[in-house]
């Protein structure tokens, strides 16, 4: 398979890439990888697909949000997650579907915060919930065998040191286990799923 992995040089992305080594991989990032893209820009996504061409699978393992307590959160703070995690991923799917071979797949990334709240996580949770709902609903619209799923990871062992103050009492999961959910989405047959790796 020819697979585009946006965020393929990141913590989750690298673990996913490792599991997909038998495939032809194209890694995308803002500055890293084989091709550059900024998911917060529609024209940047369009330009990336013009360069990359047709693929069998589109994976996203990127997205940012401002961690901020709601009582202090401004609309501008919230816009970070809207533009990146929410619209960035959905625009990747909307534009990318035209570059997918018949039977291809789209795999997006959400996260545990929407199901198990952490302080300051409301904006990320909003985006995660939006992506999850989009995936469930979009799956029934595709008529050319295209599948769409998302992976909702717990905090990773590999990221825990950086985030441990926010994730008190959480049991972090290995990146390798999270990566297997992406493999299930890409190489399996399911659609409309959210794989929760909690
Ligand atoms: N790590 C965790 O514990 C964890 C848990 C649950 C959910 N998540 C979610 O999973 C996603 C990936 O997390 P991660 O920890 O692997 O992140 P990471 O290590 O920071 O890596 C992010 C990757 O995405 C690329 N990227 C960032 N912004 C981008 C943009 N606007 N357009 C295109 N590419 C962009 C980066 O490449 P450049 O530097 O070249 O831009 C990098 O390769 C995030 O949405 C995160 O919230 C992570």
Automatic annotation (TrEMBL):
Work out whether the entry's keyword set contains Oxidoreductase: yes
Q: Fetch the InterPro entries from UniProt.
A: NAD(P)-bd_dom_sf (IPR036291), SDR_DHRS6-like (IPR051122), SDR_fam (IPR002347)
Q: Which CDD domains match?
A: Lin1944_like_SDR_c
User: What GO MF terms are annotated?
Assistant: oxidoreductase activity
* Pfam families (alphabetical): adh_short_C2
Looking at the keywords, is Mitochondrion present?
A: no
Q: Extract the coiled-coil ranges from the record.
A: none
Its keywords, alphabetically, are: Oxidoreductase
Q: Which residues form the signal peptide?
A: none
Family per record:
Belongs to the short-chain dehydrogenases/reductases (SDR) family.
What is this protein's record name? Short chain dehydrogenase
**Species per Swiss-Prot/TrEMBL record:** Enterococcus dongliensis
List the lineage, top down.
Bacteria, Bacillati, Bacillota, Bacilli, Lactobacillales
């Amino acid at each position: 398979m020819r697979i585009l992995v946006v965020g393929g040089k990141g913590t989750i992305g690298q673990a996913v890439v490792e599991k997909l080594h038998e495939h032809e991989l194209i890694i995308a990032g803002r500055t890293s990888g084989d091709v550059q893209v900024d998911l917060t820009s529609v024209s940047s996504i369009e330009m990336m697909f013009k360069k990359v061409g047709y693929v069998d699978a589109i994976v996203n393992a990127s997205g940012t949000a401002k961690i901020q307590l709601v009582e202090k959160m401004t609309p501008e703070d919230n816009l970070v997650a809207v533009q990146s995690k929410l619209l960035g991923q959905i625009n990747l799917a909307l534009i990318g579907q035209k570059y997918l071979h018949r039977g291809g797949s789209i795999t997006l990334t959400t996260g545990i915060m929407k199901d198990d709240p952490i302080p300051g996580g409301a904006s990320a949770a909003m985006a995660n919930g939006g992506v999850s709902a989009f995936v469930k609903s979009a799956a029934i619209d595709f008529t050319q065998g295209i599948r769409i799923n998302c992976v909702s990871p717990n905090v990773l062992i590999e990221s825990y040191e950086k985030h441990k103050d926010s994730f008190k009492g959480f049991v972090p999961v290995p990146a390798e286990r999270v990566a297997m959910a992406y493999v299930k989405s890409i190489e399996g047959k399911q659609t409309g799923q959210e794989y929760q790796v909690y």
